[in-house]
């Protein structure tokens, strides 16, 4: 009896542990962009669906003894394939990063993940066969608790303390323990078992479409609320853990005990949350951090309780259990595809957020119209129409000064004209965060704003750079070679002089289009700006391999102020790559402005390892530039660093050095840099 919950708990925990672990392994090789995460999501959701389909077909066409023997063979094959996980070869094989990622994941963890995915529904089906008077759905609740445990284990215990190689090896040990537990369970269940006939499943007459819609709606709500949290709440690492935890908790509650779900209670709460959703979407910045987080999570939890509560109410008898789980997995995959693959091409804003709220309201109320008063059905219908009408009107009014809007895998990008302190600016906004601005007045158009304005660390470095050798000063200042990671509106191109080469690295094609079409920094620069599309680290590695060093005088890293911190750009291996491309007397500038993360210790420790001097240059906010900014300079060039203008702006480090904060491709931890 105890082997069933133990084995299910192990399998669910391992399922959620391996996903962030392998995504973390792939980042330095394929870049930190959305393609890596989208490819991983596609792989794991597809394999989860395949595992559920295998479990369903097995229970439909094989008797219990055949099912156990066949699954035992798959477990043995998965054990034999673990060598691919503990000693992976991560080299790219094709010209397509997506195909490379899918192939590497298949080769390293494909079979073990498939076995783990199939184990949950299979064990619940076997449990129902062995203990027909007990509910197998409590094991499903336990499976979600195991997923929750795996979710918390990685960011809090695994990633901070284990290098990537040791993480993979530890996971392999965990899979061996799971296999032993499974072997013992199979051995006990096979003893004395007979080759029973295949039991025909009562597959007809089930509400498959309703199950599919509810499962998809729950996943879309999870992803949409997570997007809104990261858009409206300042960047806090691992904020995505809390929504996913509540999503899993709602599953565990409703499938563990029927009394947890009272439709009328959760429906009224959800209706109140619809009003809060309007306020949060349009006025989220007016609420403090904790109020926003609490309201978003209440909205998510009430919606998930409705979706998953209705699923629990309509769950079938155990004979159709695997078909039920197969539909839930298909719904989850459908929801992921809608948000991650289709929505970026269909919408320019995050319209899936209000649409899924409307869908949940109508799924729960209109589908059950026979069991409620007519006025309740009419109220739900009218409330949904009113909600979308208000949402559409508010979106149109607030976007009246929008010049352009676009959306892709990297987020929603808006070019907007705004009046700041009596002067009109054109702003580039990623979600709700500004990534550059320009005066609309022609006479001020080449005056950089925001984080790049005169007096900031990057402006001073670009304006006052000197080579270490005085004899090279005249020649080098006639044609400086500058690399810049992150384009934004292209404001730094305004500091370019005749003869300079400015090489921008930008991962988001929508940012490049916006900078070229709606801002004039690039077009009017005296330098020769060039924009290269791609993840900066990946492109720099390819350039080093193909053509050697770019011999930059200055290299600017400006990719650390948004909600998604590209850790792979700040590891020791990345730093070594940057200095392969920098001149010996070159200057590395890093933008570290962030309300919740302190990256200074990471850079100071890298500087100590590389024999560099690090200076901290902060700039306070003003009327035209409401955002304060912090830049760090790293260099061996004492002639440049000793200039009075640099020393005057250099300040004491705002926080003590943390010697243990040293990031590598094998080990990094965002918790260590929380302010």
Q: How would you sum up this structure, described in words?
A:
The protein has 675 residues and is an alpha/beta fold. The protein is globular and about 90 Å long. The chain has a 7-stranded mixed β-sheet, sandwiched between helices. Helix content is 56%, strand content 12%. The longest helix is centred in the first third of the chain and has 34 residues, at 97-130. The mean pLDDT is 87. Helix 1 (3-30) runs antiparallel to helix 5 (97-130), helix 10 packs antiparallel against helix 13 and helix 10 (263-283) runs parallel beside helix 14. It folds into 3 domains: 1-193, Up-down Bundle (Growth Hormone, Chain: A), CATH 1.20.1250; 209-398; 449-673, Vaccinia Virus protein VP39 (Rossmann fold, 3-Layer(aba) Sandwich).
Quick summary:
With 675 residues, the protein is α/β, with parallel strands linked by helices. It has 22 helices and 11 strands. It starts with a helix and ends in a 26-residue tail after the last helix.
Give the strand order of the largest sheet, numbering strands 1, 2, ... along the chain.
Answer: 7-6-5-8-9-11-10
The CATH architecture of the largest domain can be given as 3-Layer(aba) Sandwich
Q: pLDDT average, as an integer? A: 87
Number of helices: 22
Proportion of residues in extended strands: 5-15%
For this structure, the CATH topology of the largest domain is Rossmann fold
First-residue to last-residue Cα separation = 47 Å
Sheet having the most strands: 7 strands, mixed
| Superfamily (CATH H level) name of the largest domain | Vaccinia Virus protein VP39
What is the alpha-carbon Rg in Å? Answer: 28 Å
- Low-pLDDT runs: none
Give the overall silhouette. Answer: globular
Give the helix/strand class.
alpha/beta
């Amino acid at each position: 009896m105890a082997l069933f919950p133990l084995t299910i708990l192990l399998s669910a925990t391992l399922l959620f542990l391996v996903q962030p672990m392998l995504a973390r392994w792939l980042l330095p090789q394929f870049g930190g962009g959305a393609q890596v995460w989208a490819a991983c999501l596609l792989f794991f959701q597809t394999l989860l669906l395949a595992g559920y389909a295998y479990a369903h077909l097995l229970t439909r066409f094989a008797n219990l003894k055949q099912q156990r023997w066949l699954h035992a063979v798959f477990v043995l094959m998965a054990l034999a394939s673990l060598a691919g996980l503990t000693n992976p070869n991560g080299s790219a094989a094709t010209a397509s990063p997506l195909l490379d990622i899918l192939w590497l994941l298949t080769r390293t963890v494909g079979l073990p993940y498939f076995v783990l995915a199939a184990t949950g529904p299979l064990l619940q089906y076997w449990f129902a066969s062995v203990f027909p008077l007990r509910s197998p759905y409590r094991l499903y609740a336990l499976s979600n608790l195991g997923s929750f445990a795996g979710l918390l284990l990685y960011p809090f215990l695994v990633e901070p303390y284990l290098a990537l190689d040791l993480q993979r090896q530890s996971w392999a040990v965990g899979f061996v323990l799971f296999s032993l537990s499974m072997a013992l369970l199979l051995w006990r269940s096979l003893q004395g078992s007979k080759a029973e006939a295949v039991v025909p499943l009562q597959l007809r007459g089930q509400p498959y479409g309703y199950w599919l819609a509810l499962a998809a709606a729950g996943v879309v709500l999870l992803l949409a609320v997570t997007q809104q949290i990261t858009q409206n709440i300042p960047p806090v690492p691992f904020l995505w853990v809390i929504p996913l935890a509540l999503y899993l908790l709602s599953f565990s509650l409703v499938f563990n005990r029927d009394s947890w779900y009272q439709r009328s209670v959760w429906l009224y709460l959800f209706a109140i949350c619809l009003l809060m959703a309007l306020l949060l979407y349009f006025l989220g910045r007016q609420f403090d951090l904790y109020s926003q987080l609490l309201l978003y999570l209440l909205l998510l939890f009430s919606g998930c309780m409705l979706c998953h509560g209705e699923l629990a109410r309509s769950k079938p008898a155990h004979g159709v259990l695997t078909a039920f789980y197969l539909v839930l997995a298909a719904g989850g995959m459908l929801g992921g595809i809608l948000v991650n693959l289709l929505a970026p091409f269909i919408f320019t804003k995050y319209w899936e957020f209000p649409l899924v709220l409307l869908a949940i309201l109508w799924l729960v109320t209109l589908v059950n119209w026979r069991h409620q008063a007519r006025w309740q059905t009419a109220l739900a219908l009218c409330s949904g129409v009113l909600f979308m009408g208000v949402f559409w009107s508010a979106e149109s009014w607030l976007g009246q000064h929008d010049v352009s809007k676009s959306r892709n895998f990297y987020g929603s990008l808006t070019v907007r004209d705004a009046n700041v302190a009596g002067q009109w600016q054109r702003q580039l906004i990623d979600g709700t965060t500004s990534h550059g601005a320009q005066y609309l007045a022609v006479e001020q158009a080449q005056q950089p704003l925001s984080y790049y304005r005169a007096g900031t660390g990057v402006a001073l470095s670009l304006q006052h750079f000197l080579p270490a050798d005085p004899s090279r000063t005249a020649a080098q200042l006639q044609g400086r070679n500058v690399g810049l990671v992150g384009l934004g509106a292209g404001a730094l191109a305004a500091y370019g002089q005749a003869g300079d080469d400015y090489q921008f690295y930008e991962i988001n094609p929508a940012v490049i289009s916006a900078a070229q079409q709606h801002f004039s920094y690039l077009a009017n620069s005296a330098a020769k700006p060039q924009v290269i599309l791609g993840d900066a680290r990946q492109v720099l590695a390819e350039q080093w391999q193909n053509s050697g060093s770019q011999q930059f005088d200055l290299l600017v890293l400006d990719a650390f102020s948004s909600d998604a911190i590209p850790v792979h750009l700040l590891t020791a291996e990345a730093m070594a790559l940057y200095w392969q491309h920098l001149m010996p007397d070159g200057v590395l500038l890093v933008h570290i402005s962030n309300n919740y993360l302190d990256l200074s210790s990471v850079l100071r420790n890298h500087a100590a390892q590389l024999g560099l001097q690090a200076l901290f240059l902060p700039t306070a906010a003003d009327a035209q530039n409401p955002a304060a900014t912090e830049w760090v300079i790293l260099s061996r060039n004492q002639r440049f660093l000793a200039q009075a203008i640099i020393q005057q702006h250099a300040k004491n480090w705002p926080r003590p050095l943390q010697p243990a904060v040293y990031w590598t491709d094998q080990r990094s931890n965002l918790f260590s840099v929380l302010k």
